[in-house]
Description:
2 copies of one chain form a homodimer. Chain A is α+β, with helices and mostly antiparallel strands. Helix content of chain A is 23%, strand content 38%. The first copy, chain A, contains 3 helices and 9 strands; from the N terminus they run E-H-E-E-E-E-H-E-H-E-E-E. In chain A, strands 1, 2, 3, 4, 5, 6, 7, 8 and 9 form a 9-stranded mixed β-sheet that branches. In chain A, 44% of the residues are buried. The interface between A and B is large, with 41 and 41 residues.
Amino acid sequence: MIGHLNHVAVAVHNVRETARVYRDLLGARISAPQELPEHGVTAIFIELDNTKIELLEPLGQDSPISQFLQKRGSGVHHICLEVASIADAAEKLQQQGCRLLGADTPQIGAHGKPVLFLHPSTFDGTLIELEEA
Amino acid sequence: MIGHLNHVAVAVHNVRETARVYRDLLGARISAPQELPEHGVTAIFIELDNTKIELLEPLGQDSPISQFLQKRGSGVHHICLEVASIADAAEKLQQQGCRLLGADTPQIGAHGKPVLFLHPSTFDGTLIELEEA
């Protein structure tokens, strides 16, 4: 079912400051900051040759990243893997009794594509996002 | 300086059990378990189309993964990025006053290639490994 690793999402306190470190120390290509108020984040992408790291900073009230920073501290928030069809993935996962986070039906993610999140307990502590390729 | 994301390393309690979930729920290709006593880990690789996830379980006394599990719980342990030359990377990072973990000189990592680790405080909480491509 899964194909590419689409991105690794990292919760940080300040995307601009952390992105500068990736750029200046490691020579990484970084995007401009993008505000995504519907997801409660400001994002900067660290472009790698085969995938990307997404730095996420809380934006607005009730940001899921604020909660994560308070509870866990900064660090990797989730790993996003690509699937050919989110609808097929959701159906198969629900048939297997897999616990999805949030709504039972796929939502539109930060890249404008259908996504779903699998509960971290499924993978012994790792939050996995599936995104339609 | 950095190119490909080589792998995302995830600390888990039992690599066999967690790898089975990746295989059975997500259809992932998984490797056989590999014991790496010199690194204090048993590893299983989740093969993705563009990179891999490395599941790491403590092996033996003084495993760094045991300490991580006790302190932080299971979840992503580090992100490994490729560089053309570890010696050049180490020199450049030390010139910029960057804090390296462990020995000041590059060590041989779990794939038999030179590696170094950057202190997680550098990247606001994310442990970054550099590996020679």
